[in-house]
Amino acid sequence: MVNRIDITLAEIKKNCKIALAPFVTVGYPDIETSIDIAESVILAGGDLLELGIPFSDPLAEGITIQKSSFQALRNGVKVSTCLDMVRRLRSRGIEAPLLLMGYVNPIFHYGQAEFIRDSVEVGVDALIVPDLPTEEATELRDMCEKHELWLVPLLAPTSTDSHIMQACKRAKGFIYCQSFTGVTGARDHLGPKVRSLVTRIRRHTDLPVLVGFGVSQRVHVQEIGGFADGAIVGSALIDAVDQAPLSEGARAAGDFIRRLKSPDNAPNVRS
Questions:
Q1: 88 contacts: CB under 8 Å, gap ≥ 6
Q2: What pLDDT is attached to residue 185?
Q3: Strand, helix or coil at 24?
Q4: Cα distance between residue 11 and residue 23, in whole Å
Q5: Of 127, 67, 77, whose CA–CA distance to 97 is shortest?
Q6: In Å, what is the CA distance from 245 to each residue of 33, 81, 249, 251?
Q7: How far apart are CA 94 and CA 114, in angstroms?
Q8: Three-state SS for 117?
Q9: What is the DSSP secondary-structure string of 59-70?
Q10: Measured between alpha carbons, how far is 224 from 271 in angstroms, rounded to an integer?
Q11: C-beta of residue 42 within 8 angstroms of C-beta of residue 16
């Protein structure tokens, strides 16, 4: 079995495009609306979809995603809810790669083996666990790889060359590159060290590199296309949903993704 991420990113690279990966918090603003939002951003042009598992202490998240996570928890969202959302998206005919982003505690509480088994069963393609250091991820990675489920590493401008090398050594799917050090959140500009970070990463892997944290405008996506393979957008997307009436949340999310993509999805000019 070939992972959907590998197929999708290879096709995007072949066509000299920039991958766009929206982030949606499962259960925000409510469970049913979040499913509609997820479907909407894919139909609007999202190439991969990152689904956030709500957690009470999301250390890597800024105020926007923290707020969405807390509201989702109040809405009764559990890990099982997130898995069911993937199942429902697949039943709606969504074939795009689906990733679950979650913190260690909920995954371990659910049970690592059970979580991986159930993730594969519903159609998850990869996991992102931001508070699981590479050095401590061996067991979970081994379990994932047995099922062709990728564990995507997260690297920041503060990552040392040795840490980058270690993270890239067994990475699958792609490398998640933080635009800046700190927490998520929409910004006016990308981090000043992100281009050099991508250069450092490319010394150790041929995998695609996707840049997240701070992406909020089409110009950011186009800028990223000059040195990386794709952009991840979360907080700015949630802000767009927040600015619309509840009944218009899915439409607003889709419109936002369409605005991030140029007519031809901005040709990738990276040399």
A1: 35
A2: 46
A3: strand
A4: 21
A5: 127
A6: 11, 24, 6, 10
A7: 24
A8: helix
A9: TT--HHHHHHHH
A10: 12
A11: no
pLDDT at residue 14 is higher than 70: yes
Specify the amino acid at residue 190: L
Q: Which amino acid is at 105?
A: N
Give residue-wise pLDDT tens across range 171-221: 999 999 998 765 454 555 676 889 999 999 999 999 999 999 889 899 999
Which residues is 127 bridged to in the sheet? 100, 151
Query: Do the Cβ atoms of 231 and 19 come closer than 8 Å?
Result: yes
Q: What is the largest CA-CA distance in the chain?
A: 48
Residue 249: left (phi > 0), alpha (psi -120 to 50), or beta?
alpha
* Cα gap 21→213, rounded to integer Å: 12
**Mean pLDDT to the nearest integer, 123-133:** 95
- How far is it, in rounded angstroms, from Cα 21 to Cα 78? 23
Return the domain boundaries, the chain: 4-256
Q: Within its chain, how far is the Cα of 244 from the centroid?
A: 23
Give the separation between CA 271 and CA 264, rounded to whole angstroms.
Answer: 19
Euclidean distance between the first and final Cα of the chain, in Å?
32
pTM to 2 decimal places: 0.92
The whole-angstrom separation of Cα 259 and Cα 247 is: 20
SS3 137: coil
Q: Are 204 and 170 in contact (CB under 8 A)?
A: no
Residue-averaged pLDDT of the chain: 91
* Tally of CB atoms within 10 A around 217: 18
Q: Measured at the alpha carbon of residue 237, what is the angle toward residues 129 and 134, in degrees to the nearest 5?
A: 15
Using CA atoms, how far apart are residues 188 and 235, in angstroms rounded to an integer?
A: 12
**CB atoms inside a 10 Å sphere around CB 65:** 23
Question: Which CATH code is given to the segment(s) 4-256?
Answer: 3.20.20.70
Tokens standing for 170?
A: 């067994």
The tokens describing 137, both together, are: 């991820």
Query: Which residue in the block uniquely carries the two structure tokens 């609007």?
Result: 44
